[in-house]
Structure formats: C-alpha cells, structure tokens
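hey
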C-alpha cells in the first residue's frame, strides 16, 4: 500500500541492473510513493541489464549512463538530473559494488592488487565522488538523504566476500566522514544500510553464497531481509521521518548482527552431526 511518503521528492537511483536488484526494487517503491527519479548505472551495466524496462515501469524515468568512478561522468549526470527535475534533489541511493578479484575467483590471500584498487574505487570511493560532486554543484536540498548499501563483512570476517569487505568498511567510513561535513554545510544526511545476504545478480556471485544465505536465515530471529524489505527501509531513510538520522550504519538483517547463535541453527548442526 502506498502512502505518498516521498511525494514531491526527487532523486537518483544508482545501480539497478535487473528485477532481482535492491536498487530496482527501491526505484519501483520510490515512484509508487510519489517520488520522481533518474536511473543511472555504468555504461556496461546498462548494456547487460534491463534498466530500460525499469524506466517504463517508473513513469519513463530518464536513464543517464555514468561511470561512478569518473568525476566528469558524475558531474554530467548531476547536471542533467537537475535540468530534468528543474532544481535540486532530495535523495540518492548508492547501490554500487564490484570486485574483479571476486569475479575472477582470485583468493583473498593471493589478491591481485590492481584489481583490489579497482574494487575500492568502484565500491567505496565512488560514494565519496558522488557526495563531493553533489556538494560542489549544490545539487541537494537541505535535509536530503543519501543512502549507500553495505554488508556486515565490513565488521566481521566472511571468507568468500574477499576484498569487498575492505571496500564496504571504507564506504561506511566515508559515509561517517562526509556525513559530518555535509550535515554542517547543508543539513544533508548520509547513512549506510547493512543488508542481509540477498539473492541478487551481484550477491549470487560471491563464493558459497547459497550456503551462507541459508545460514544467515537460520541465524536471524526474523530471517533474512528481502530486497523488497530493503527497498522499504531505504524509502523510510529518504523520508522526512528520519531527518535527524545521519552518519549511521544501520543493520537491516533480521537481527543477524546481534545474534551469537540461534536454536534452529544448533538443532540443524546437531542433526547433521548425529548428536
């Protein structure tokens, strides 16, 4: 049910690839709640994905290609978006992440450092570049909200997550640091949302994902949060109801982050061990 939570608000959604992605779900829900949006992704992702289909579902939202590691591309995106909206924006979703080491199945202890730097640039520094571009171009209204999607591997070790763990940790630090400066300068709030393991095209590429998805679901009192749940949480963060929340890493994971071990998981382990 829609409540027009974002009526009159305008923003950019980065990273929608296909119907399984959290950015895709967030775009649909944002429009349903009254927002106007611009969709953006890297040119190669636009060719591989279905973003034009999403555009049609979102009142023909403009699709503007941008490599989030390129300041020039981001400046063009922000300029075109402001021209489309006729003014400043109110929210941004940063759903951007990619690791060449993960894609090439290179073990963490044998990392390719050129790939590692690309991981950090794409998955973390891109947030800084987006925020810096918006601040310099005065693109965001006061009390705007920037949300970046993260994962608990920023705080805890999950071997298959590889160098994306460092990228998420850096991204969360950038959100805190830039949130401080943007908050004092323009009352813009910057937060990260640490989501459950979610069945998306990107998430499924992580080694051992299926097993860990099952583990996290058994561990979490509420089970894993879905992509639809994540979209709804992001909408709340975009809304005026969270206008005093900034510089936070918010766990949206069904309780996983605060659970040591769950009884269902113990029982499953006992059964598998024949205890």
């Amino acid at each position: 049910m829609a409540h027009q939570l974002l009526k009159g608000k305008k923003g950019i959604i980065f990273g929608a690839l296909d119907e399984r992605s959290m950015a895709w779900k967030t775009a649909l829900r944002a429009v349903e709640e009254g927002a106007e949006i611009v969709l953006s992704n890297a040119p190669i992702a636009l060719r591989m994905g279905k973003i034009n289909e999403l555009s049609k579902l979102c009142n023909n939202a403009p699709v503007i290609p941008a490599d989030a590691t390129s300041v020039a591309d981001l400046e063009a995106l922000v300029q075109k978006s402001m021209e489309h909206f006729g003014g400043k924006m109110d929210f941004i979703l940063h759903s951007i992440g990619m690791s060449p080491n993960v894609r090439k199945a290179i073990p963490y202890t044998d990392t390719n450092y050129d790939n590692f730097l690309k991981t950090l640039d794409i998955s973390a520094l891109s947030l800084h570049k987006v925020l810096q571009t918006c601040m310099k171009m005065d693109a965001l209204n006061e009390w705007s909200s920037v949300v970046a999607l993260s994962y608990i591997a920023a705080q805890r070790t999950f071997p298959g997550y590889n160098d994306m763990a460092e990228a998420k940790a850096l991204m969360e630090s950038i959100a805190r640091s830039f949130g401080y400066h943007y908050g004092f300068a323009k009352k813009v709030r910057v937060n990260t949302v640490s989501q459950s393991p979610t069945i998306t095209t990107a998430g499924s590429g992580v080694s051992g994902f299926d097993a860990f998805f099952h583990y996290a679901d058994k561990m979490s009192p509420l089970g894993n949060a879905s992509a639809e749940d994540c979209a709804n949480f992001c909408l709340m963060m975009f809304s005026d109801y969270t206008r005093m929340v900034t510089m936070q890493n918010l766990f949206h994971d069904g309780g996983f982050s605060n659970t040591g071990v769950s009884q269902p998981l113990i029982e499953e382990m006992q059964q598998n061990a024949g205890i």
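Residues 10-273 form a domain with the Rossmann fold fold (CATH 3.40.50.720). Residues 113-136 form the longest helix (24 residues).
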